[in-house]
Amino acid sequence: MAKLSVIIPVYNVEKYLRQCLDSVVNQTFKDLEIIIINDCSPDNSKSIIEEYINKDSRIKFIDNPQNYGYAKSVNSGIKAASGEYISIIESDDYIELNMYEDLLNLIEKNNCDVVKCNFWQFYGETDKNIGVPTVFSKIKNEVFNITQHPQVLQAHPSVWAAIYKRELLINNGVFFTESENGAYLDILFTFKVMMSAERILVTDVPYLHYRQDNSNSTINNPKKIYSISDEYDLLTQYIERHKDLKPYVNQYKLKKQYRDYKWNLTRISPEYKKEFLTRFVHTFKALSDDIDFEKDFPQKHKKELKMLLKTPSKYMKKYGYKKEPLIKKLIRVNINATGIYVELLGRQVVRLERING
Q1: 90, 206, 45, 226: which is closest to 140 by C-alpha?
Q2: Rounded CA gap, 56 and 36, in Å?
Q3: 285: closest CA among 256, 263, 304, 305?
Q4: Same structural domain for residues 111 and 133?
Q5: pLDDT of 52-62, one tens digit each?
Q6: How much is the pTM?
Q7: Do residues 85 and 153 share a domain?
Q8: Where is average pLDDT lowest: 39-43, 51-55, 267-271, 299-303?
Q9: Which residues of 88-103 are buried (b: 16+ CB within 10 A; e: fewer)?
Q10: Which of 91, 199, 241, 264 would be a feasible disulfide site paired with 112, CB 3.0-4.6 Å?
Q11: Distance between CA 277 and CA 316 in Å, rounded?
Q12: Range of the domain at 339
């Protein structure tokens, strides 16, 4: 039995898969069980996986007979894992070669249920990594539970920038929601982990490169209009079943929920906006009936919320669309037969000669 089981769900990622797998198989910590789940990838991903299977006996391959989706694929990996600890890695991301050695040292030295680290936002087209500020820097290197530092929930869910005790997940039923159009599944998963764990440790050191420019990623799919609200409905129910922890976590849930609904409204296709706005209003009207809502909902968003509930059409006009960058508002380029004119605030400031041919 390996010390750590690494679960890698794969679907349509041939462009990025080798970089991901290389970063896992070449870890400085060697006692790994690498569970790769191919979810009927239509591209060359399976052939790439088979290359690595032939080179590394630590790889355990699950080849789904049909496309089950991300949640069921990862859940099957968790259930198949035999390691004392579990890590989940997205197949379009990659990790630093010392990630597992360092995080396992932390989790075992401090006898923790979960250790989370920071990550970079990674843009593969330009090979650029951008650091991500995190609340972890304020509570790092301290073992705690959710009642002591509930602000840990302010951080990005980042289920893939962590290692977990396998028994924590299994004993508390911490799995991903298996739904047909599932997305944003890390929200409920992370709350379950943090609410179930007795000993949590975080570090602000980034070990994972979180790819931002994969066009097939959920974060770039505007068609999944209700996935985020479905997941928050389940989270609301989960918190209500754990009333002893509600006073600690509810305010962070409401803050994230409102911001995520507002963000979702701006990003989805125009034909779905009105439909989603109706659900947005319905959800927060129901939430506002809760006795704790007034004290738990963030003060800074209360004016916006009042507009949402009383005049949804006005809210849509003000907050329902992505804001045009200021520079685009200030500058306009006109092209005609005599030249190219750059206008600033409606005034011509530059004329460039048009070059023909």
Answers
A1: 206
A2: 12
A3: 305
A4: yes
A5: 999 999 999 99
A6: 0.87
A7: yes
A8: 267-271
A9: bbbbbbbbbeebbebb
A10: 199
A11: 8
A12: 325-357
